Fold this sequence. Notes:
- The chain is an alpha+beta fold.
- Among the domains are: 7-66, RNA-binding S4 domain (Structural Genomics Hypothetical 15.5 Kd Protein In mrcA-pckA Intergenic Region, Chain A), CATH 3.10.290.10; 167-270 and 295-302, Pseudouridine synthase, CATH 3.30.2350.10.
- It is 19% helix and 27% strand.
- Strands 5, 6, 7, 8, 9, 10, 13, 14, 15 and 16 form a ten-stranded mixed β-sheet that branches. The chain has a four-stranded antiparallel β-sheet with strand order 1-4-2-3, with no helix packed on it. A two-stranded antiparallel ribbon has the order 11-12.
- The chain is elongated and about 70 Å long.
- The model has no long low-confidence stretch (mean pLDDT 92).
- Residues 91-242 form the Pseudouridine synthase RsuA/RluA-like domain.
Amino acid sequence: MNYYKPITYIVQPEENGWILKSVLREKLNISRRLLSRIKLTEKGVMVNGKREFISIKVFTGDRIEIHMEQETSEYIEPQNIPLDILFEDDYLLIVNKQSGIIVHPTHGHYANTLANGVVYHWMQKGENYRFRPIHRLDEETSGVLAIAKNPYVHQQISEQMINNQVKKEYVAIVNGHLPDLEGTVNAPIDRDPEHRHLRIVTEEGYSAVTHYKVEEKYKSASLVRLWLETGRTHQIRVHMKHLGCPLMGDKMYGEQNETMPKVDRQALHAAKLGFFHPNSREYTEFTAPLPSDMQSTIGCLKRE
Length: 304
């Protein structure tokens, strides 16, 4: 049986004499469901190199290792698709996703996705992981995207997102000028009852909060930096439209009378992603430079 690289933890002085289960739950935040899966494996939870029951006591300096059996992405066909890798270790893969590529295979679209390229990349390295994107980016959105290499890493960063501990920063080019140079959009979002693939701002929707800051103003557009407090589908696109400034090139949420955009996709880029690494527990940020099509668009806007 093959295992992922173990998650490790050194028992701290203030945890001396704790029950192992308490350390796993309170310090490593392992969910009951995941812990049940780990306990069923041959290695399970080890203390100082020895397989142990989670009912034992642990002491200062003890080394705890959590072992998880490897899973595969057998249903994803490996394809040699170029990847812009920003970071990779035994626990995470961080890529700069290009616009025009779907993250995960969907019904009727099984090939030429980011997942196909990632599985191929791992295969070339002689590694085998299940493809676990921690979050999603729309097909046309470029930028930083994180992929977990085991279920614990996925669980931990997902919980950080729920607890608003993950920093997600975007850059967008919007049509027109926002009402303020800095502001917050607190407007609930839900599906459009008439067009189920679209989202709208509605009082009956789910809480959605977007913070923004105008970086530059042009004659007919603005360069905006945005931070998400929540992660609703199409949140930035819907909130910018709600303010009367839809994203340039956005075919779904752009105004009907919008002039021909200077970029052929929604001008949205995930510029920065920050979170606490689940193994080192240190805060880490990853950044992706503004793509060439958005840089060219900004150049055109400056010359208007």
